[in-house]
Description:
- Helices cover 61% and strands 5% of the residues.
- By secondary structure, the protein is mostly helical.
Amino acid sequence: MSGDMLWGGRFSGAPDPDMLRLTSSLDVDLRLLPYDCRATKAHARTLVAAGLLEEADLTDVDRVCDELVDEWERGALAPGARDEDVHSLVERELSQRLGEAGRRIHAGRSRNDLVATDFRLWCRDAALSLARTAADLCRVIARRAEEHAETVMPGFTHLQPAQPISAGFHFLAHGFAILRDVRRFEHAAEAADVSPLGAGALAGTTLPLDVRIAQDELGFAGLFDNAMDAVSDRDFAADLLYACALCAVHLSRIGEEIVLWTSPSFGFARLPDEWSTGSSMMPQKRNPDLAELVRGRTGPAIGDLTALVTLLKGLPLAYGRDLQEDKEIVFRGTDRIEGCLAGVARMLDGLVLDADALRAAAGAGAMWATDLAEVLVERGVPFRDAHEAVGRVVAAVESEGAGLTDGLLVGAHDAFVPGDSRRADPLRAVAARTTAGGTAPVRVREQIERLRAALGAVAEA
């Protein structure tokens, strides 16, 4: 019969084993067990305040919940054959171990508000963990930027040589992008920080429950406004996966540059042995596999966000079993990004830059052109005229296959003077870019301090 199911009273027959297998979520949501036990402890206190549970029972409820968490952590907790999900498992164990007190626990509570509570608690913790891990990556980037504040390299647009920059400046461009990810993870934690416990199935309860008791016990910053919205809302999960997806995009860009920089075609950097792999056929190969995988895992990260919002888009209020599928998507997505963030931090920490190769590349490709055009602008020449004059110099250098000379400059425009060719020195070009957010070492060091200051309130993972 079906009396051992949480909902079995109105059924005369047991559910088909295949139906139970196909609808069970226990293999996924067992991960929520510590949060389900926390929510159960909080709800028990709400019941005591309402006179629906004896205060003396709280000690036993707390003890059994702690035992369940301990057994789960040790892998010693055995689910029952009829446990559909983590909630039914916890309630069954409470009932078996505590008798009547355990059977009273679910009064005024639905699995709808319980799963929303568990999931919000989990997402809040996961988002804060990701914020810390992303902040740790930022700290690695700040350290590498400090090491290379004066290491000159080419900056690119369209993957074509554009202007000389410092490697530290380049690192920081990634650092401030990851800092925004830290902020998005913190926002996702704030979005999850609302208690839905007490909303019931969709409309609250007739029992005299003070839902603020559970809110306070669980440390939620806010309380639900509408019970129907409370059990159906998964915006907080979408916020978390959006933060994961955009973080994956930023990590992918870092991965792409590691792939390029460590290629012999660029020769800008080298990964240490412990962060490289080889080929099963070609003995000479040194592959940046993790960088490639981080780049590749961006697709699934974006897919997770798409999967979740697609899952939500057509659901009528309040709760549909479709929402069972949200946890697998979110667990998978957050695990992926946590691993990618930690891996990229280790890779960047071990990346060895070739300062000589970077310096040589910074002197190629006529990257002095903008600087020389701005020399003319400083001397009163309209920018468009300066642009055209320097363009002629670039064309002459390329066609003649010779280096830049004062003679070429003076011949291109009468505002040039002997000695202006020294402006083509990439070290000088980098040092001269002292405007806000620029690549000059003095500005790079300011940016490092701003990045570190912004991370000051984020604990290390």
